[in-house]
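REVIEWER CHECKLIST
Item 1: Sequence provided? yes
Item 2: Single chain? yes
Item 3: Sequence as submitted:
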Amino acid sequence: MLDALNILNRVFLSSTLLSSVTLYSDGDYVVQKTDEIRDVANVISTHREWWRSESKCKYIGVMVPYVRDWPETSVVSEVEVVHPPEPDKIAGQAFIFNRKICPDVPDEPILRLAEQWRNRGFIYEKRIITAEDLASMRPADRPKWIAQVLGRLRRVAEYDQKVKEFVDHLSMAVPAKQGQDQLSPEK
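Item 4: Structure as written out by the authors:
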């Protein structure tokens, strides 16, 4: 019995490790913290560890503020506490990566997500971001901010050319047969 549990644990850990990657920021990026200004997005560039074969590749993404517009439940001393939504307060930064650009090979469409809850106003160069592959996430584990952030990106793309290019490439990262269902937090 113990051997079977060890095998299952190893399978679970392996799948978790394969579905997430550690990315390092290529520069310093200013984090939007003003609650009144939310329709912003910063295009960012990251890379993998120096010792990996793909260390010369760039992972292109955006950093977008999001608010917690859903109730959140926590357990404190065995008592369940429901925290109401806080739609007027920035909760953190969402990261969506949609392209992997490597030398001498065509760009690869990807779809990886990450989030940062706390920040001091900057994402500094070499900051670690752990990004998960959306396709390998169970629907229940997908971030609740997906629809909100995608709406924000579409609004920002109307006046920001770099964000518009990101949104245009985002459609290539989602397989046609899955369509927008892949990006929906409920699916």
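Item 5: Key structural point noted by reviewer: The helical segments are 2-19, 146-157, 161-173.
Item 6: Recommendation: ____
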